[in-house]
Design brief:
This protein is α/β, with parallel strands linked by helices and about 250 residues long. It contains 8 helices and 8 strands. Helices cover about 35% and strands about 15% of the residues.
Length: about 250
């Protein structure tokens, strides 16, 4: 892969002060790896909404790229939502859309996710589109499910997908003691790339999430990086995965 992405989301686990302390420790890990300046490995950090302005200030001048955990589908009278245009104004580069928790607990369906993807792209943000099957199946069946989710998210306009990163997160692996096996993930991603190839998207960045942790990335084939959760709440683990990514790049 030309670029390896290593992302981490704090979800809603940290308070404001805790988030900033964690970010400062993450910056230490990044600064200790000057090879990141080459841009072949992209470290992506996604804190809670209230943290974004200060996070943008803290990471200025570092290789870290700022992301948001969600966005609304447009500006306007949507109480409690955050517009993608405001996120762009705050210095956000990526926005997570379609996470399994949003789909399950907040009733976000394919139509809503497609609206958010379109609004994000129009605002200059790169969607980090989360997709994945709910139950363990065979790799081919999982890839078919993911392909349908991806097609729905871009409303069938594959040109929209060219600017996004796909986070393949099998729902059954999120929060599990162990991630999906490296062989399973590699086969799902390989089958997905084969399905995307006729649309000119065989090299679309596809990263794996779902209890991802250090040691997994070197075992994967054809996968563009990892989307980390609780394991990277320890900044040292984030640094370990960055080292694995740098070795691959």
């Amino acid at each position: 892969m030309d670029t390896v992405f290593v992302g981490v989301s704090t979800k809603m686990y940290m308070g404001y002060a805790h988030s900033l302390r964690w970010l400062e420790e993450l910056i230490v890990e990044v600064d200790a790896r000057p090879a990141l300046a080459a841009g072949r490995v992209v470290p992506l950090v996604i804190p809670s909404f209230p943290v974004l302005p200060e996070a943008a200030r803290l990471i200025t001048g570092t290789p870290l790229v700022l992301g948001a955990q969600n966005c609304g589908w447009s500006d306007g009278p949507w109480t409690g939502e955050v517009s993608p245009s405001m996120l762009a104004e705050l210095g956000v580069g990526f926005v997570e859309i379609g996470h399994a928790e949003r789909r399950r607990h907040f009733a976000e369906d394919d139509a809503m996710i497609a609206l958010k993807v379109s609004a994000a792209v129009e605002s200059g943000l790169k969607p980090l589109l989360c997709v994945g099957e709910t139950e363990l199946t065979g790799p081919e069946a999982a890839a078919e499910t993911v392909f349908r989710q991806l097609k729905a998210a871009v409303s069938g306009d594959w040109s929209v997908a060219s600017g996004m990163v796909v986070a393949y997160e099998p729902v059954w692996a999120i929060g599990a003691p162990e991630p999906a096996s490296a062989q399973y993930v590699s086969e799902v991603v390989g089958a997905l790339r084969a399905a995307l190839a006729p649309h000119g998207l065989a090299t679309l960045p596809i990263i794996y999430g779902g209890s991802a942790k250090p040691g997994l990335l070197p075992q994967l084939d054809g996968v563009s990086g990892l989307f980390l959760g609780r394991f990277a709440h320890d900044p040292a683990n984030f640094g370990r995965v960055l080292d694995e990514a740098l070795a691959l790049s």
